[in-house]
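Meet my pick.
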Amino acid sequence: MKKIITILISFLVLAVIALTFAGDYFYNEAVKRGTATELHREDEAIPVMVDRENERLIEEATEWYENQTFETLTMTSYDDLLLEGHFLEQENSADKTVLLAHGFRNERENMADFVQFYYDQGFDVFIPDLRGHGESEGDYIGFGWHDRLDLKQWTEQLIEEKNSSSIFLHGVSMGAATVLMTSGEELPSQVNGIIADSGYTSAEDILTYQLEHLYNLPSFPIMQVTSGLTQARAGFGFTEASAVDQVAKNNVPLFIIHGEADELVPESMSHQLYDAASGDKTLWTVPEAGHVKAYTVATTEYQQRLTDFIEENIEE
């Protein structure tokens, strides 16, 4: 009997060690700041079909972006991180601003495609590096949860320092989840609309999906162990980082966009977000568009739908 107990205890100890090792590995892949590459990156997604005219528009927008001179803005977050972003001001500013939020392990330059469009619509453009990315401080990736408070603070700073009287938040992938999580906060009245492209429902849902589809592993109990490590090291758990819960408290017009061929964030998540959201909301799914590729696949239509959404909700 003692031998059996000893074997069971040894097995249990080995299992705990193995799970701790696995949790630490996935924490480093998903949460720790750095350049881990196993998890699918937004910029690796390839659209199913790209029209040559759309390619030309994107190429011109990227070249235009590279020729602009940006002002660097900084902010100290609620937990004392120095965050940084680039601000492009109109020559004749109409005091309206778009805040562009990038995706997982990306940085502000990855939002270059959208800058010229918004600038041509008369917007000042602000692109922050989210915490744990680019030039912003932070040892971990927040999956939108702590970032939601950063974006709220950025909007307040834009109002105070740049006299922004109308603000739109536009995010892609993790940035989309971030702006959706931000929507559940008490935002300044100057925030007139939120655009979320390829957003996920929660950190737990997207990491569970990736664990099962990229590693072919069951999420239990690795996800729970990794979430516990994240709580201890970064101050949040995967379950609480929920865009679904946040949009249920929203009162800002939402425009939710998703590619129907998204290979990283299931299209079904956009429908869950739309169904859960309160307030005015619109859902547009784009055929044959992979992850964060709706703008590449349907550039002209995307721009027209953005224009319509802005005109319907902007406060002059």
Notes: Residues 49-202+241-313 form a domain with the Rossmann fold fold (CATH 3.40.50.1820).
